[in-house]
Specification:
Distance between the termini: 35 Å
Number of domains: 2
Helix content: 40-55%
Structural class: alpha+beta
Number of strands: 4
CATH architecture of the largest domain: Up-down Bundle
Shape: globular
Radius of gyration: 17 Å
Number of helices: 9
Strand content: 5-15%
Length: 214
C-alpha cells in the first residue's frame, strides 16, 4: 500500500495527520503544497482535494480528505498502536475533544479566515490577534475542562489518542499568536508527554522538508 501525504509544514491539520502516521510507524511520501503561494488552488491539486485544503492522503492513488476522516481511516486500517480507547464511552469522549478543536477552534484561525479579516474587514495585526485570542481562550478553556479529571499524562490516560494528535498542533498555533498557555495545566501536561515521543518530534513543522531552512 502506497501512502502519499499532501501537506504544508505549518498547517495544523496536516500536523495532526503526520503525528498519527508516525505514531503508527507508517511510511509515506511527502508532497508539499505551499499555501502562501496558493498552490492549493491549482486545478491539478483540486482534483485531489476539491476544497483546496490540506492535508490529503492518497492511498494507492485514491484520495482521502479532511484530517479527522484520515485519522479515523488510519485507525480502522492500522489498528496498532490504537489511537482510540476500546470502551465506547471513552471513545466518544476522545472524539468530542478532537471535534472541539477541529470544528470550534481551528477554523477561526486558519489562513482563509485571516485573509478575510484583513482584506474584507480591514483588521490590522493587533485586531486579528485579539480575534484569535478571544476564541482560543474560550475553546482551550473548554478543552482543559474536558480532560481536567482524566488520568494522564496524555489527554485521556497513559497512551496517545486522536485527542493528543489534535492538541499538539493547536497549542503550536496558539503560541504563534502569542497566546498565554499558563492556565491550561492539563493541556500542557499532555503536550509535554507527546513532545517527548520521537514519532511526534519527527512530525513537527520544523522537521518537514518544506520548512524554511534557518
Amino acid at each position: 500500500m502506497k501512502l502519499v501525504l499532501w501537506s504544508y509544514w505549518r498547517s495544523s491539520a496536516s500536523y495532526r495527520v503526520r503525528i498519527a502516521l508516525h505514531l503508527k510507524g507508517l511510511a509515506y511520501e511527502y508532497r508539499a503544497v505551499d499555501l502562501l503561494r496558493d498552490e492549493q488552488a491549482d486545478p491539478a491539486y483540486r482534483a485531489t482535494h476539491p476544497q483546496a485544503l490540506v492535508p490529503a492522503l492518497e492511498v494507492d492513488g485514491r484520495p482521502i480528505v479532511q484530517s479527522l476522516a484520515i485519522l479515523e481511516w488510519l485507525e480502522e486500517t492500522f489498528p496498532e498502536p490504537p489511537l482510540l480507547p476500546r470502551d465506547p464511552f471513552a471513545r466518544a469522549r476522545v472524539r468530542a475533544f478532537a471535534l472541539a478543536i477541529a470544528c470550534e477552534i481551528h477554523p477561526l484561525s486558519n489562513l482563509a479566515v485571516r485573509r478575510f479579516l484583513k482584506e474584507e474587514w480591514g483588521l490590522d495585526e493587533a485586531a486579528q490577534t485579539r480575534w484569535h485570542h478571544r476564541w482560543l481562550e474560550a475553546g482551550l478553556g473548554a478543552c482543559e475542562a474536558m480532560v481536567r479529571s482524566e488520568a494522564g499524562p496524555f489527554c485521556f490516560g497513559d497512551r496517545p489518542t486522536i485527542a493528543d494528535c489534535l492538541l499538539v498542533p493547536q497549542l503550536y498555533n496558539a503560541r504563534r499568536y502569542g497566546f498565554a498557555l499558563d492556565p491550561f495545566v492539563r493541556l500542557r501536561e499532555a503536550e509535554e508527554a507527546m513532545r517527548a515521543l520521537e514519532p511526534v518530534r519527527r512530525a513537527a513543522p520544523e522537521a518537514q522538508p518544506d520548512a524554511p531552512k534557518s
